[in-house]
Structures are given as structure tokens and as C-alpha cells.
Write a structure and sequence with these properties.
With 202 residues, the protein is mainly α. The protein is built from six helices and two strands. Helix 2 links the parallel strand 1 and strand 2. Bound molecules: S-adenosylmethionine.
Length: 202
Amino acid sequence: MFTKSNDFVFNLDDVRVPQKYYRARNNMRGANPGDVWKFSHVHYCNQNRQNHPTQKPEGLIERMVLASSNENGLILDPFSGSSTTLRVCQQLNQDAIGFELNPAYVEMTNTRLNEPFNGFDSIDSRMERVPNDLRKPKIRHKYLEDHISWFLKNHEDTIDEFKKIVKEKYGDNAFNLVSKHDKTDETYEQMILLENEAEYNV
Ligand SMILES: C[S@@+](CC[C@H](N)C(=O)[O-])C[C@H]1O[C@@H](n2cnc3c(N)ncnc32)[C@H](O)[C@@H]1O
């Protein structure tokens, strides 16, 4: 993404990707997604596939919109094609304008924007990765809940796969290991502080 002036929006917190390892000193809210992003194309059998030769993955546009515009912004796509940008903005509650030369694609846009939403059609696979070393049940439990709301929002269809990976790494009870007795009102930040103390006091 490029900007011509120093006056720009970059909402890093909205586009972070999960860490590879749990470490008290890591920012578990996630890492910068970096300069190289990988999204698979929208496969021909995907229910969201449009009859447009260069349809972009919604996950890619989602990241661009989240990173570069604030809520209630106005996004312009002057070559909107199958209207991936408009569809993503619609789901993110952003106003958007699209220009399109081909009347068939304008028609396609009208249909697409009226379809029920079942989650974006693609995601950066790093969003589903489950950090290693989440050994402490309390921290793991809190983290896993946060992971879903931070990284898998608008991607309902990925949650089952995420849970499967969690279970493979941390066992079948990974999501409910915390007993009533263990339940805590501590915030994640407080837990990280406690963990930090433990890590540096050994
Ligand atoms: C690369 S495609 C855009 C694909 C889009 N991002 C998507 O996900 O479907 C470019 C689109 O721009 C349209 N286009 C080309 N020249 C245009 C012009 N001068 N004004 C408006 N639309 C134009 C083409 O018809 C084509 O659908």
C-alpha cells in the first residue's frame, strides 16, 4: 500500500497476525503482517465465486480496508469489477463507491451486494495458526477466546478448523481446562505481568 503524503491512516492493531509462540514478552495481540501477504485465489467451486476473470479474495481487500480506513470512512474503487471491495466494505460498515465500465459486472454487483453473508471467502492462513507453548491453562484459555475475536472475526467458517488445530496441539480439553475454581477476573495484561514476573524470577 502506498501513500503520497505523510498524512495517512495505518491501523496496525486491526490487521495483526497471531504470534508463532506464546512468550510473556511477545505482544500476543499479534505481529505486523509484514510486506508479503499470501491469500489463495477464490476457487471456482467456492460459493462466492463470481463470473469475473480477475476476482480478488475478500480477505485481501478486508486487510487493506481495515489497515487504511477508519470506521465510517469512504472507500473508492475506480475499477470495481465483481465488486469485492464494495462487498467487503458493506460487511465492515464502511461506505464505498465503485466505478465499473462493463454493465454485466454492474449487474453482478447488484446481485452480490444483496446475497446473504456467510463470512469472507478467504483468509491469510497465518490467522488460524495457534501459538506454541501456551502451556498454562489460564493463559491459554483466555488467549484462545481472544484469538477468535481478534483474528477470526468475519471468518466464521474457519473457527472449526482453528479449534481442531488447538485440540491437536493442546488436547481435547484445551478449551475447557479452566475449572470454576481457576476462573479469573484478571485481565490478559495482568496475567501477562504475572507471567513476566515468573519468567524473569527463575
Ligand atoms: C482487475 S478488474 C477488478 C477486479 C476487482 N477487484 C474484483 O475483485 O472483481 C478491473 C475492472 O475494471 C473495469 N474497467 C476497466 N477500465 C475501466 C474504466 N475506465 N472505468 C471503469 N471501469 C473500468 C474492467 O471492466 C474490470 O472489470
